[in-house]
Design a protein that fits this description.
Layout (H helix, E strand, L loop, with lengths): L10 H10 L11 E3 H7 L5 E5 L2 E4 L5 E2 L1 E3 L10 E2 L9 E4 L2 E4 L1
Length: 100
C-alpha cells in the first residue's frame, strides 16, 4: 500500500486503493462523499445544495447522505458565510458555504 505525500490516507481511500490493486473486493456506493472521492474520480469542481428536501449534488441532481469536509476545513481560502440564514438553501462547493 502506498501513502500519499500529503500525509496518511483515510480508511475509504485505503480500501479503494486495495480494491483497485485487486487485493480485496469492495463496493462503493456514492451516498457519503468527500474531497478524496472527487480527487479519485478526477472531478475538480463540485457543488451541492442543502435545503429542506435534503442534500443534492448539483451536477447529477442526485440526493446524497452526507459530505465529509476532509480537506476544505484545512484550506484557509475555504469561506463559510456568516450571519443569519437568509434563505432556505445553502450552496456548498470547493470554495465555501453560502446562503442562497
Amino acid at each position: 500500500m502506498t501513502i500519499r505525500d500529503s500525509g496518511p490516507i483515510d480508511m475509504t481511500e485505503a480500501v479503494w486503493q486495495a480494491s483497485r490493486e485487486g487485493r480485496i473486493r469492495a463496493g462503493f456506493f456514492p451516498f457519503l462523499w468527500s474531497e478524496p472521492y472527487f480527487k479519485r474520480i478526477g472531478q475538480k469542481n463540485w457543488k451541492f445544495r442543502l435545503g429542506q428536501e435534503g442534500l443534492f449534488d448539483e451536477l447529477t441532481h442526485k440526493e446524497i447522505m452526507g459530505f465529509h469536509f476532509q480537506d476544505s476545513k484545512l484550506n484557509p481560502d475555504f469561506q463559510i458565510e456568516s450571519g443569519p440564514l437568509s434563505g432556505n438553501t445553502i450552496l456548498i462547493d470547493n470554495t465555501g458555504l453560502r446562503h442562497e
